[in-house]
Write a structure and sequence with these properties.
This protein is mainly alpha-helical and 196 residues long. It is built from 7 helices and no strands.
Length: 196
């Protein structure tokens, strides 16, 4: 939960940096969404789990890494939602709009964060069994999570018409199916392995 505040500060710094570059407004928006938000948030959630869980001598179940990644995401998004709803821009909205935003964020942002982190967790779990591909699997999991998080954010902020709803729904359903498959696959693997 605590990492959400540094994430917000890092994101603001990146937005400011990209804003100072002599780039087209569309490219700045794209960089802000994919690097300034998606990459920062997914990386920080992973680093928390890496620092607190993977290095813990009690950690010996690859399936657990998926669970810890999802739990880290839920803590992150809970803090993110609190920060959003305490911001003057949202806090001063009429009650109906605030409740609508709360419902939308609960349904969408919460699931997005949990599922993206579950995806990273799946590839991390695989990396414990394929140590020669450890870095590649982490990069793949992180890359997929960042890409889908970015496309999701881009679609809800920039898409128009039905695409604004259809793209996020497709991403959430696809991620839910993938993470569900991932839990089943990792559960079938050896339950106790040597974690490096």
């Amino acid at each position: 939960m605590i990492i959400a505040l540094p994430a917000a500060l890092i994101e603001m710094g990146i937005f400011e940096l990209f804003g100072k570059l002599n780039l087209s407004p569309f490219l700045v928006k794209y960089l802000n969404i994919f690097i300034g938000v998606a990459l920062i948030e997914e990386s920080l959630k992973y680093l928390v789990v890496r620092g607190k869980v993977i290095s813990n001598p009690e950690f010996d179940e690859p399936l657990d890494i998926m669970l810890y990644m999802v739990i880290a995401a839920l803590g992150f998004v809970a803090s993110e939602n609190i920060l959003i709803f305490l911001s003057p821009k949202v806090f001063l909205l009429p009650l109906g709009e605030t409740l609508g935003l709360a419902g939308f964020r609960f349904i969408s942002a919460t699931f997005l964060h949990a599922l993206c982190s579950g995806t990273i967790g799946f590839f991390l779990a695989l990396s414990f069994f394929e140590s020669e591909n450890k870095s590649k699997l982490l990069a793949l999991g992180l890359g997929i999570a960042v890409l889908l998080h970015g496309i999701y954010n881009f679609s809800i902020m920039e898409a128009e018409g039905n695409a604004q709803f259809i793209i996020p729904i497709i991403i959430l359903i696809g991620l839910a199916l993938f993470v569900s498959f991932g839990f089943k696959k990792v559960k079938k693997m050896r339950s106790v392995c040597e974690i490096n």
